[in-house]
Amino acid sequence: MKTETVKLSQIKTNAANPRQIRDEKFIKLVNSILVFPKMLEIRPIVVDNTFVSLGGNMRYRVLTFIASLSIGEIKERLSGLREFEKKTTAEQNALFDYWDKWLDSPTAYIIKASELSDEEQKAFTIKDNVGYGEWDYDTLANEWDAEDLDDWGLDVWQDNDSDDDDSDGSGNSSAKNGSLVDRFVIPPFSILDTRKGYWQSRKKVWRELIGDMGDSRNDTLIKSPEIKYKDIYQKTREHRESLGIGFQEYLDKYVSDEVKEHEAAKVLSAGVSLFDPVLSEIMCKWFTPEKGSKIFDCFAGDTQKGFVFGHCGYDFTGIELRQEQVDINNKVINERGLAIRYICDDGQNVANHFEPKSQDMLFSCPPYYDLEVYSDMEKDASNQDTYEDFLVILENGFKNALSCLKDDRFAVIVVGDVRNKKTGFYYNFVDDVKRIFKENGAPLYNEIILIETGASTALRASRYMESRKVGKMHQNVLIFYKGNPKNISKTFPKIEFSQEDEKMFDEEMNVENKEE
Fold it and tell me: If you ran DSSP here, which 8-state letter would residue 175 be given?
């Protein structure tokens, strides 16, 4: 097979190709090819003997679109592209000359798939569009400019048109997907997917900015060596089988401490469950009436939530039982100039630290009973003898916290159901939290499902299925409201959307309506 040059008019689009490209992506592909036409020779269109495209359907559509433009329109498009602006004057003029000559006789580079059978050609149409890999967002962030990646069509979270150097996710610059200060950050749907590239990139920025990676409770959650050293576990399977030994014995005999330390560092937070800072950012922007609002938490834990609130311009106070954790929190926020404070006390005593009806939002992610035991302290909800005793502590804390919450305000509680370790049945923890708030004057107003990354879940899946348990990959974000919901529109300002956002929402709604 060799590359040939043919007239563009000779190629026919493949009506059976299911691959589509939406308007925004199509324009980005147009711009990408305009500024870098050499890609067309490197990635020729694959056609059958009748010149119907099998691979490169989108590139053919783009070339057809470009052929409909005048050289003036092409110059105007190119002049507005960042990648074009980086070129020298000579390179820019050469690009204008290239497209000026191309318009006289539009052509395309092709490869004929003559040697493929009909079935192979049909399979090629699909396989050519399948992506088996995934992006390493750490490498992308370190090696490439985020704005270039976005221009090239890769979905990443990135800041545009910043007037200052604040690009650290702090909420002081604008972004393609919305202003970090005034906008909603993530589309406000009932499903939030933390696996998305823009979410992961944004979380990484927050993690680096915060610094505290759960230092007071290392290895309280991930105890399994198969998960903690997941890459070693996967790569040494055959070797272990040939030796006839288990994974822990293999680690002890054949893996150095340095290698184990390096591999363990790959597992986020080294076995500590840390709250997602992006979720914190979303919730404070959606469910507080204004910047400067007072947010509090009667089961505060680490700094992840509070730091984000403070950096976004809110006042935050957290009640935390463990002095060790309070000391770490204060060290992290020291000299940051943020309106954050931590008080060492039992969360059940939250009303001792606030005036009645003085706070604008209650935001908490309480312990998930004994899923992760934080300490052996008597009042620690995570180490209670029974689930019922655990609920008593939570109910006392939340009941007293609600007395500190203003009327016509929201409470956001992040929870996930947990299993009874003896029976394997779920406790129905999520519904118990809903009951507690309803009985104390704050019924459920919204429920969001937070989908989480599943690397460790995948490793546990086969073991889980021995007892027919499916791997859990979500949490429940419960939003309660204290007051008259008719006052919400009066108390909370309207969230403004851009034209791009409105178009996306309209498309989503059209899909939902068709499905109904």
Answer: B
Regions of the chain short of the pLDDT cut 50:
156-183, 212-223, 267-273, 455, 512
SS3 content of the chain, % helix, strand, coil (to 5): 45, 15, 40
What letter would DSSP give residue 425?
-
Token pair belonging to 491: 């108390």
User: At 413, is the secondary structure helix, strand, or coil?
Assistant: strand
* Residue 183: closest CA among 514, 496, 421: 496
Please indicate, yes or no, whether residues 349 and 475 belong to a single structural domain of this protein.
yes
Residue from 391, 397, 372 nearest 382 by CA = 372
Q: Is-contact 177 158, C-beta < 8 A?
A: no
Q: Hey, what's the torsion of the CAs at 246, 249, 254, 257, to 10 degrees?
A: 130
Within 10 A of 214 (CB to CB), how many other CB atoms are there?
Answer: 23
Tell me if the pTM is above 0.85: no
Q: Per the domain annotation, does 262 fall within a domain?
A: yes
Q: Are residues 119 and 232 in the same domain?
A: no
Tokens of 365: 């992610």
Nearest Cα to 167, choosing from 177, 175, 155? 175
Q: Are 175 and 157 in contact (CB under 8 A)?
A: yes
CATH of the domain at 420: 3.40.50.150
Q: CB-hemisphere CA count at 13 Å for 61?
A: 19
Residues 9 and 70 in one domain: yes
Same domain, 229 and 210: no
Name the residue among 497, 494, 77 with its Cα closest to residue 290. Answer: 494
Q: Does one domain contain both 283 and 252? A: no
Domain range for 233 = 223-266
Give me the count of residues in the chain: 516
**What token pair was written down for 493?**
């300002």
How far apart (Å, rounded) are the C-alpha atoms in residues 495 and 267?
A: 36
Please check whether residue 169 lies inside any domain of the structure.
no
Side chain identity at residue 363, one-letter code: F
Residue 308 lies in a domain: yes
Q: Are strands 107-112 and 3-7 parallel, antiparallel or unpaired?
A: antiparallel
Q: Please give the span between the terminal C-alpha atoms of the chain, in angstroms, as a whole number.
A: 48
Give tens-digit pLDDT for 216-246.
444 443 445 665 666 677 678 788 888 888 8
Which H/E stretch holds residue 149? helix 146-151
Residues 464 and 336 in one domain: yes
Cα 466 to Cα 481: distance, rounded to the nearest angstrom: 41
Are 352 and 447 in a shared domain? yes
Q: What angle do CA 184, 189, 194 make, to 5 degrees?
A: 80
